[in-house]
Amino acid sequence: MKTRPLLLAFLLLCLLLQAPAGSHAGGSSPRPAGVDLARLQATEPVYLPRIAHRAPLGARPQLRVVAFLPDGQAAGDTDELIVVQNVGTIPTYLSGWKLSDGEGVVQFPGHWLEPGNRYTCARTAAGYRQEWGRTPDCEYAQDTDPDVPNARGRAPNLANSGDEIYLLDSGGTVRDAVLYGESQAETADWQGAPLQYYDRSTGFAREGQLFYRLFDPISGMPLADSDTAADWAQGLDDPARGRRAAYPGWDMYEFSQPAYVSWVTPHTATLFVAPDNILAGVIDLLAAAQESIYLEIYELEHPDVVQVLAQRAAAGVKVQILLEGGPTGGITDLERWAAQQVVGAGGDVRFMVNDIPGAHDRYPYQHAKFAIIDGRTLWVSTENATYAGMPILSSAGTAAGHRGYAVIVQDPILVARAQEIFARDADPARNDIFPWTADHPTYGAPPAGYSPPDYTPGLAYGVRYPVPVAIADASAAYLFTSPESSLTPGPLLALLGRADAGDTILVEQLFEHAYWGRGDSDPLSDPNPRLEALIAAARRGARVRLLLDSYYDDPFQARNNVATLNYVTQVAAREGLDLEARRANPAGQGIHAKLHLVSLGQERWVVVGSMNGGEVSNKLNREMALALETGQGYEALAQVFWWDWSRGVPAGAVATRPAP
Ligand SMILES: [Ca+2]
Ligand SMILES: [Ca+2]
Ligand SMILES: [Ca+2]
Ligand SMILES: [Ca+2]
After folding, report:
1. pLDDT, tens digit (0-9, with 9 covering 90-100), for 604-623
2. Which CATH number fits domain 259-461: 3.40.980.10, 3.40.50.300, 1.10.10.10, 3.30.870.10?
3. I want to staple 526 with a disulfide (CB 3.0 to 4.6 A). Which of 28, 320, 521, 578 is the partner?
């Protein structure tokens, strides 16, 4: 036994001193078919680290391929990339380790990779920077940036249709492998079918699709390596965690853990209801700004909101706004006018676009609706700054608009996260951020002489909640976002997953699709994990009510709300669940809300934000929501919900096709 530490030390020394070429000593993995390991050996000498310290005896370097992008968006796929991560317990010197696609092989530059850290090697630094707006750790095909170290050798070409990626240690042993697409290769480091692009929903393009290993949002470490497609985001096994992809420019490692705060003493917050008091609430909030307003929103088309933004900018308040550049229906003259007013007053308006040269969609839609005021106050809304979302009330107290909600809370942790999200989203280094430019036909001024159309308040709805809900009992909150944390990981599914007998879930949504995937799929093949979480809660004994919009609901779409009502109602009837669904139009222009009210034992949660019940919203868009633990907020919004519910119509009472 006494000789054992010495033996380990000797073996470790052998490993560290491994000759770079022609040596296979210590290699225990079988050779991958079609790979000539002799060719995979380093083509240049291994530069030994000057300090081979810190490694406890017996600890073995463990690196893993955790992400790669075969079908780049840059011309010539110069933005192909491979990311490795140190998943072991000791700092590891990368020089000597190699990446291969079975044909090319490159050796990493000298770099100590600390445990937990990732290292991104791009085909070229220039191609990567164009698509990600930042610099990779190394480049392997060409020296496009003298400041970015080069991996040397014969560069891999990641075939878009399928290929292999091998990670070899300094002894030439394959330590990790990924097979994807049409790869026919066989290796002991991969079991079963190759990993496939995620394309069950049409929102997921192959070009730009980043494959990545599922990871723990707290540690950032990949989940256990089973050498199968199930380890990866594109794997189909877990509809709430997998069945997805990432795209260039995403910040998923930074934001997958929601911002969480729990307050020792009860905290205040304010809840707003549309159409009743949401406009007055946002005007008051903006008008009070003294230092800064950061507003990230899908649509800005409300002249009253624009007026106060311009007025604050003119008064010297820093006003910075990020808008979606390609909203459904396109940017209107009203929004061009809105941007013109704010910029004319000294503010800054940017669009997230995909139609200027070199730009690619980071997110299909920048659909979040939030604002940060004076670095202290966070506003999160289900509504855009439009007449429909924030109707002007008549003198008689009537309106016609969306049922929706917003929340205001002050907390440094929540505000800091929202500020970080804004900074990343609106970063001018990203190729999809384009500033309002007076003479640009899309992102510029409206036609000369344009002025906003007149507005006449609607009569359909008599305001019921003139005063916002002042909360004084908030005890915790999560701020979470799509695409990072709206499913798993994320607080919404976690809350729904805890509901059982005696608990209640009330949901009010613009829509909640019966299934995801393609339009002709079904709930078994492509489950909507949000809807299935509601059904599962009902199966555990919870009371669940789902109220969906009937105003915008399109009877000609396969995935309309009637189809969801029918599906839910059939499941409830068949299994005897306390689960009901209705459609309603309580305030004249439909339900646009994205609201979950969750009552779990003594806990009460209000979840308000921008996520709709479709796949793109939860996996690809930029969205933001706040989950707030508050009994007072729950009781107040439950009253709104039950009034709306009383105006709802259940399944069976609605024709699925209009009469001819
Ligand atoms: Ca390629
Ligand atoms: Ca390409
Ligand atoms: Ca370089
Ligand atoms: Ca592996």
Report:
1. 999 999 999 999 999 999 99
2. 3.30.870.10
3. 521
